[in-house]
Structure formats: structure tokens, C-alpha cells
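Give me the fold.
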Amino acid sequence: MRILMVLTYYCPHTSGLTLYAQRLAKALVRRGHHVTVLASQHEAELPMHEQASGVDIVRAPVLFRVSKGVISPALYARAARLMGSHDIVLLHLPQFDSAGLALVARLRGKPVVITYHCDLVLPAGAVNRLANAAVLLTNNLAGSWADKVVAYTRDYAEHSAFLRRYACKREVILPPVDLPETSAEEAAAFRARHNCDAVPIIGMATRFSAEKGVEVLLDALPAVLERFPRARVLFAGQYRDVWAEQDYFSAMQVRIDHWQRRGNFTFLGVLSQQEMGAFYANLGVLVVPSLNATESFGLVQIEAMQCGCPVVASDLPGVRQPVAISGAGKVVPPGDAGALARAIIEQLEAPRVERAVVDRLRASFDPDSCAASYERLFSETLRRKW
């Protein structure tokens, strides 16, 4: 099959959505399919066309930005041209351009499958309210024109207004996770570099943004330090100049500076996938204190568990599923700093994730299994279309 995958951001931009798309694209190529990824040229230095791991990557120039999104009229022209040589279109939502792209596909007679990653809940503000409304409208138009809609979990699908609306088209496919194996030497080098020896380490792995609940962890930290005075938070991910999140970072900076001066909080920046394995290997617990439906799962939870690290996550639809599937951690009410502190302490005192659980998670979330499920879905959709 020739598959055209369209999304706003693609690697080297790092998020759960882009990692999902990249892992799926590479796995489909390994299974013998031709995959083209069409995305925005979100950074000026990115090439308009390149190939990576057998995946053709085409980018469209950005006219301007609105909140976390981009406006790229050229995306439609490139999509229309590429659709002529592809069998099926896979759209990753939420995406401002989704309705226009689904309509172009419909006019070209190409079947459309949507992967719905999460509901969009932007911070307060007039511009963000308009952006939220616009994306909701375009997503729903795209959903009405799509042939199939993929969700990560049944739990999230049953709580998302969008996914409930398209229940008749819905398929559930577990997301792909394929973090490289980390050697003992790599883990030890990371431990020495970041002074992790004999210190309880609490990890966060995400972009620094309002829905991720950084303030909840900061509220929980004093209680954790009463039990573990030398505990440290290591934050892996982009934290400066995150689009539309500068005000949130500024609001948190004084509090974080306090813990940084005391040696209890360290920003690591964006790590490679190989480095992330060493990061997880040195954690006592990973926390995912997300606050709303913009978080639908948290791939980092499975990554951490595959490295033997337990997780504390918010009791939100979808987000609670990795702990439910594995039993490797605990869920707590979103925004409850006291419950988060107690759960962190409990997990820091708990043993590492058992090897049998690690092996089961690697099999369940293998990108090849995910790609095989999409392959069956694409084949079924194409048969019904023709």
C-alpha cells in the first residue's frame, strides 16, 4: 500500500503525537509499504523534502502561527498532489487543517482514516478560545468525512465527546512504543553525569505546558522531601520557549528556581531516545500529573515501565490505562498534591517493575503489532471503498 500520513508537526519536533507517527511510519515501511509523511515546515531550517528510515518526508511552508497551531495554505496543494499517487490518507488529529484535508481526499476519491490522539484544551485567553473552537469544528468535519477513526484506548474513547460522536467508525489500537534497550554502562554513565547515586529520583518526561500539571508536583514536593530529604526531580523535555506556554513557565519559574538552588530540581532538556532509556533506568518513579483531556494516554508511562520504572499518573480517562494494564504504579486524583506525594513516596519504596511485566509490555506495544493492526484496517477500508 501507498500511505499518505498528514500531521501538523513531525520529527524533529518531539511530542507523544510525533513519536507515535514516526514509530508507526517506520514500522509500516518495514512491513513493505510506501509511506509519505506530509507536515508543516515548523522550523525554517528544515528541508522541504527528505527521507529518513525509508519514510518520505514532505514539508509545507508556514504562513503564520496561531497559539500552538500553524497556518499553512501550501499544505493543501501538496496534499492534493500527493493523494494522486497514494492509496489511503491517514490524518493525525487534533489538526486545524483536518477538515480541508479530509475534503480534498473525499474529492479525490481517497479513503481517510483518522488517528485521534487527544481532545484539545488550550489555556484561557481569547485567542485560545477561538483556536479551540476552530479546531473542534474542523475535527468534527473531518470525522464526518472519514471512513475510520482510531483511538488509543476504549477508556478514552468512551469519555471523549469527539470519539463518542463517531463510535460507529471507531477502532481501538494500542499505541507503538519502541524505546531502545539501555546497557548497564549507559545507565551508569547517565547516573554519574547527573549525580543520581544513592538519591531517590522523581522523573517527569514531557513538554513544559499548563496541562501537564507541573505545579501539582511542586505542591507535592515538600511532603516528599520530609520523607526523602535528598530526593530530586529530573525534568526531561523542552521547557524553554514552548509555543504558547511562555506565560505558564514564567508563572512557575520562581518556585522552580527555589528548588533548583536547593538541588532538588534539574532540567535536562530534550533527550534522545537512547538517552531516555538511561533516564528511566535511573528513576525511582515517573510522574504524569496531567490535568485534563489533552493528555489521553502518556506514552512515557509505557517507556518507563519497559525500563523497570513504576509510574504515578492522574486518574484521567486513558491516562490511567498504563497502570491498569501493567499494575506497575498508582493513579491519583488529578490536581491532588497530597495524594501525589503519598503515591510518590509509596512507589519510591516499592520494588522495580518485574521482568515478566516488562516483557509483556514490550510485546503489547510493539510498533510492528500496531502497524499490523493499521494494515488490516487500511485493507478493510480499501475493500469497502471499492
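The two ends are 15 Å apart (CA to CA).
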